[in-house]
Target: Pyrophosphate--fructose 6-phosphate 1-phosphotransferase
Amino acid sequence: MKKNLIVGQSGGPTAVINSSLYGVISEAFQSSDTIDNIYGMENGIEGFLKGSIIDITHKISNEELEAIKTTPGAYLGSCRYKLPEDLEDEVYSNLFTAFEKLNIGYFLYIGGNDSMDTVSKLARYANSINSTIRIIGIPKTIDNDLVHTDHTPGYGSAAKFVAYSVREIALDASIYDTKSVTIVEIMGRNAGWLTAASVLARKHENDNPVLIYLPETDFNKEAFISQLNQHLEVTNNLVVCVSEGLHDASGNFVCENETCTEVDNFGHKMLNGCGKYLENLVKNHLNIKVRSIELNVTQRCSSALLSLTDLSEAAIAGKTGVKAALNGATGQMVAFKRISDTPYQLTYELVDVNEICNQEKRIPLEWITKQGTDVSNDFISYVQPLIQGNISVSLEDGLPVFAYRK
Amino acid sequence: MKKNLIVGQSGGPTAVINSSLYGVISEAFQSSDTIDNIYGMENGIEGFLKGSIIDITHKISNEELEAIKTTPGAYLGSCRYKLPEDLEDEVYSNLFTAFEKLNIGYFLYIGGNDSMDTVSKLARYANSINSTIRIIGIPKTIDNDLVHTDHTPGYGSAAKFVAYSVREIALDASIYDTKSVTIVEIMGRNAGWLTAASVLARKHENDNPVLIYLPETDFNKEAFISQLNQHLEVTNNLVVCVSEGLHDASGNFVCENETCTEVDNFGHKMLNGCGKYLENLVKNHLNIKVRSIELNVTQRCSSALLSLTDLSEAAIAGKTGVKAALNGATGQMVAFKRISDTPYQLTYELVDVNEICNQEKRIPLEWITKQGTDVSNDFISYVQPLIQGNISVSLEDGLPVFAYRK
Model:
């Protein structure tokens, strides 16, 4: 008997989370001998609990599907909803009753480590009631912090945006014949993958960004000022890249804004103001021009700087997830395994989602230079393939044409 | 007798100030029957006073010239240097002695209203000593605030970046099924041209950005909160675009940071923190998620979102300036005269630089809606042609290849 497939998106958006959605939907369309209807959860599992679903099979045309592939954000809407730890909670029986009503056989969830927590719980509950619904996770996060996968969809495009923008900012910052410091604050609470990608903007030794600070190491204000002074002897206009999650040796975040102590639904601290804080620090210690730039959400939603590699892998991850579900896999996440850097080669595999959820992969310390101010060539070899290739998004009157949920 | 040409750049950088430099240099190369050597001032008139010049004729290859065309920043370096008001000051005789030594016949200066002040003073001094050096200004500013020209090179590309990014930010901000306000702070101290361009991101009524606040009108905090509340009844996730130079009816800037009172060399207040201030204001008045995004320098140095129209016009402005100088013009700035919106047609003319310098063109009040929260269709017809057409910048390993002064 044919079953239906349901797909949802969860957590923060990326430039290619919809490419994975495209992958799921197009693979499901191609599996019409096994899959009957395709449903989408609106606003993830939280929206599904409220009954918000859309009939993708009948509502999304092939043309729309193509536009979805290059649309940033989360086409289906997203949520930051944590399912109860207690699998006896009635929310689970409610969910599975609803799945049954919809004749769901395949549940695909695109998200980061918090979303994999949802996948894990649903898979464990399904197992406990002997449900045959296959529950599969598709990775997604610009933070690149999922374990057991070489990297995550969304990271490559964000990394490209960071490197590209930092190279442009360095040009912008270097036009005057005066000394200056420009601090670029880049996303990353606990893992510095995205900030580290700024190294690609550098073309030669002593070129900008001259200093890169990551949350994998402790940040020391005195050392920072002294490192700036050292570099100012060689370079007039310094560009310094910092992760939003910089912290001192006691684990206190480097930020001045009271919002840095706000906490989201998953208990993560929400950071704000590290760049602005450092701007003021430099202003008070060095009598030179200083500016801070927060790349902000543009780094995760830019469609002008999509990495073709990232976008393609995101789509294949979605397709691979559907194939895995059809083959009987459940409680697994699609993961990337790198075969080689040069030429860049990748295979796709499945990993037990319980080993992934609620964990964070950080940059290996051996990829960070001793002073904690730079990354190694090993990191460059790692990240370079991920930003390759370009996509031309359809334009109308000079602006991008995106897909919007009706 | 053949004369030499010298060209300089001054003021803040744009994405196409180097396209104008390309225009000047390529036209000068083509005028080798009249122009002997081409020199560049490093860091504008300030650098020239220190003797920093480069021999463009012998140092810049055709290949480098092509790369200059699409390189953001200011290839020759820039300055924010104000020449003395007193034309009897010895700086003028020093300058013209140096010009004479270099056999300069043509002086081209690419910049905004402050730089046109330099052009005006040099032209007046040249006149007072019966010098035959022709002094010509090429317009440049993302602020689009020069009078007597339909628009300025640099504005179109920055406007495209703003509209493009705001459309993406709106997608990013709309993924959760909760109410939120996203405040986008856009450059513009006294003129709202760039902020107003965010209207192009809007696809239909009530679409984001729902509110646009410009420095041409007075900002009222109570009215702002009430306008947000009105829109939140219709739309869950509001994107609001604000100019950095928002001020209240008493003329006080809307910002919280002490740097908003800093003053640059020309006596302009340097603003900071309007978006962050409004973020906190909304946080305190409405119990919903709020975020502020400062587009910052990326809006003026993005090469991924160059407008072909802007870039071409910038280059033609440079060429036109050289031709004008060769034809005997001096003390003039190249200006744009629009013939029609549809089809978009433009001619180039010369305007007395004395009528341009130290003035600011603001958005006509009839192009701003009555409540001061939006712009009219007349503005849309004005700005739309300026963002059209795309450029592909050369890439290497996924990142742009720019030209750098040796």
Observations:
- Chain B has 13 helices and 15 strands.
- Chain B has a mean pLDDT of 94.
- The radius of gyration of chain B is 22 Å.
- The CA atoms of residues 27 and 201 of chain B lie 37 Å apart.
